[in-house]
Amino acid sequence: MPTITTPTTGIEIFYEDHGDPSHDVILLVMGLGAQMTLWPDEFVEALVGEGFRVIRYDNRDIGLSQKMEGARAPSLPIQILRKKIGFPAKVPYTLTDMAHDGIGVLDALDIERAHVVGASMGGMIVQLMAVHFPERLMSMTSIMSTTGNPKLPPAEKHAMQALIAPITSMEEESLVAHGLNIAKNIGSPGFPFDPEQQRERVLRNIRRSVYPAGPQRQLAAIIDDGCRRARLAQVRTPTLVLHGEDDPLVKLEAGEDTARHISGARLVTIPGWGHDIPQPLIPRVASEIVAHARGV
């Protein structure tokens, strides 16, 4: 089993390493409650085919990486209330800790520098890598993510409700229905998924791992991190921001805000794209990342 213990945080991380070890590295960081397998195999293969070494990993508290057993996240209403009145809530770990995890993967594999690519919460994590570890980054790509600016338009109600809906049963069919409901409500209206193909993908992921407690603690870390705009103003890492124009969960304005607050960032938006990586968009998204990495 390919696991490493990160030197910086001491967290056991499950990872996959694809491509020629001598090639430049692209490190892929996934989002809230999402296993590394949500980076489609075809997407990884496309990047490898363009001459990159591609590493994807499970964030802490999800998939096959270490779980923070026994750690309690504050309740969502209490955490939001304390944030609004300026009082921090105690969280099990922070997004900065998760950024340290990713850099720790590079450390453990003796990789000095990498192109980092993050989706959704993963975008927030790679933003923090650029803030705290600029010397380790060749480039940064933030996908379907945000600055954390509380004044940005909120997620569409149906998308947020689907994402945070509690798992009510660990029976396989119930878990599949839960996963399909999320996919339906946050997916790309311009690129609807094939129901059978999506069901197979959801089934494969839940058979790999189901851990409901992890996303609650990850969400607490997101809320705790707050607005990153002032920190992002310090970033000088070459940055690409990719965002769907029809994202129901993290609205287009969030991507625009991200690009606006990072010096020299390039924004690319795609009509019909929601909060997923649909098969028809894999070539386009991969090509944008490859062009950005090669242009550095």
Order of strands, widest sheet: 1-2-4-3-5-6-7-8
How many β strands by DSSP?
8
Residue share in helix: 40-55%
Query: Would you give the CATH topology?
Result: Rossmann fold
Main beta-sheet annotation:
8 strands, mixed
Strand content: 5-15%
- Tell the overall outline: globular
Count of domains: 1
Number of DSSP helices? 11
Distance between the termini: 34 Å
**CATH homology group:** Alpha/Beta hydrolase fold, catalytic domain
Given helix and strand content, the structural type is alpha/beta
Query: What's the Cα radius of gyration?
Result: 18 Å
Judging by the overall fold, what is the CATH architecture?
3-Layer(aba) Sandwich
Give the C-level CATH assignment: Alpha Beta
Average of pLDDT? 95
